[in-house]
Structure formats: C-alpha cells, structure tokens
Amino acid sequence: MTKKDTTTLDPRTEGVVRDSASYSNDDQYRVKLITTMLDEAGNNAGPRKASGTQAEKDAYNKLHHSFRELFKLRGQAFLDGFYAFVEAANKHRNGIFYAPAANNRISENFPNRDEREVFVIFINMLIRYARCADKGRFRDTNDVDRLARRLNDPDLRSLVMHAFGG
C-alpha cells in the first residue's frame, strides 16, 4: 500500500505489517507457550520470593522449559520467542530475571554440562541485552560468539547472532 508523501506528493511505500505469524501452528503454539510460561515464572521466583517452595521450583522448571522450547524453534518463530524472553526479562527484572536468581536450580534441571553452559551464557547475556539501551551496539561490548560457538546447529547459531544484534 502506498501513500502520498506530503512534502513531494510522490508515492511512498508503507512499512510491511505482518497480520499473523508466518510459521507453522506448532511453532505458533511454542511461542505462545514460551510467553505464558515466562510470565508465570516471573511472578513466582526472585529475590523477594520465598526460597525452596514448590512455586519457586515450578517457576524455574518453566524458565528452563521455555529455554528448551526456544532452542527448538527456527526462523521468525525463534526471533518471536527470543523477543518474548526479552520482554519477560524487562517485565520481571526484579523477579526470576534478577541476574543472580536467574541461575538458580540449573544443576537439577540441566544434568548435561554442555546444555547447562549454554543456558547460563544465554540467560545472563539475555538479561544484559534486555537492559541495554543501545541494542545495536550490544555485540561491541558482549561476546555473543561465546554462546554461538557452543551451538551445533548452524541455523540456530545464525539466529542467535542475529537476535543479539548481528
């Protein structure tokens, strides 16, 4: 759709507006699941919440499950899931995304050392990214390659680099 530029009266194109997600129903469900789980987790864990409760354990299970679901996605679905993480990190910055608290319960939910390393690097980088004022320059001061090197899937590696401003 074009409109007339008010200064020149030349046609100008409007930005592309996506009416709906352009990926599969399964991926749409995963993105919605990630968004829902992060919101639920954000309200039930953090420095001002009781430690050792079932609600806290469930919150970390949801955070870790959301991470796993995100890393199953590809293409635009991954980016939408990533931005759901960024939004949740800003919304719950004093909850489950409070930097020291975000690393709780990782040994019980990530018995695999490699997956645990990827999660720790990702979640801490994501928290910094969410709070970064100039996201375009995030990679200038943060080693996104450190995370990308630990990913075996080249598509996922590219998506992570792109998501963090590459």
Give an account of the 3D structure.
With 166 residues, this protein is mainly alpha-helical. The protein has one domain (25-163). The chain has 8 helices and 2 strands, in the order E-E-H-H-H-H-H-H-H-H. It has helices at 25-44, 54-70, 76-91, 106-109, 113-131, 138-141, 144-148, 154-163, and strands at 2-4, 11-13. It has a two-stranded antiparallel sheet. The longest helix is centred in the first third of the chain and has 20 residues, at 25-44.
Main β-sheet, in a few words?
A: 2 strands, antiparallel
End-to-end span in angstroms?
A: 30 Å
Helicity level, as a percent range? Answer: 55-70%
Number of helices: 8
Strand content: under 5%
Strand order of the largest sheet: 1-2
Query: Order of SSEs, N→C?
Result: EEHHHHHHHH
Q: What is the radius of gyration?
A: 18 Å
Number of domains: 1
Please report the total strand number as a whole number.
2
Summary of the model, kept short:
With 166 residues, this protein is mainly alpha-helical.
Describe the protein's topology:
Layout: E1 2-4, E2 11-13, H1 25-44, H2 54-70, H3 76-91, H4 106-109, H5 113-131, H6 138-141, H7 144-148, H8 154-163
Antiparallel strand pairs: 1-2
Structure keywords:
mainly alpha, about 5% strand, about 170 residues, single chain, two-stranded antiparallel ribbon, about 55% helix
